[in-house]
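Problem: given the chain below (276 residues), write out its structure.
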Amino acid sequence: MVRENKAICILGSGRCGTSMVSRAINLMGVDVGSHLYPADRTNPKGYWENSRIVKIHEKMFKTVGNNIHQPLWWQQKGYSHLKEELMEYITSEYLDKGVWGWKDPRTCHFIELWNEVLNELGVTPHFVIMVRNPVDIVHSFKKAYNFEGISALKLWQQRTLLCIKKTKGHKRIIFDYNQFLDNSLECLKTISKTFNLKIIKNESELKKQLRNFIDPSLQHSRVSLERLLKDPNIDDDIKELYNLCYKACHSNEFFKSDIFSNKINLLYRSFFNELT
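Solution.
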């Protein structure tokens, strides 16, 4: 009997809890690979991010440039070696694992490529989408990287739209940053149930390890949905996007609904038409 190979991809804009979730699923038994970036001042609990995957993504951005969001760009002449490099690394690093995962915010730009690669390798993708109040995102990007507010907002908007739009039809789940921060164990149980993953540790041990790793004091901004919606400095499309995501995080029925999907499609078309 051939063992199913599952890949758990943690998606999000950056500064929205993807490192926290990557380590959390690792604690429940998911192999997140080697070559992990060490902790630093920006991320004192660690990135839990595979540096080899990051470098492949960065190479794609550098090589493909503005064509990065063109359909099937990796099938064009001069780009196929990028897909081959990704496939070779996944094969060497992960294919002997039953359940494995990775996290890199840049993945949001390459979901369709990843899906094609994983399908060809016989791996079933599963997506954990992380969202966070964009006002808190601005504060976090400013503190970590000295990002301008408008740049952080646009990056959040772009990557959030991409990861929701491009994962439709696949096995996926969505969490708000504060949900995971406040009750990581219950979120892991939801992931376990939704993706049919076994938690290899007993609950008390896992709870202790999560408590030691997830430090709420590292959260320096916690803005309410109501405050966001009243903020005159935030574009209406950004407010609507987070409002939709917030509802989806608290209602799986809404997350799976045509109403949610159709509204995301409208916001997606509006945003990307502005870029072209």
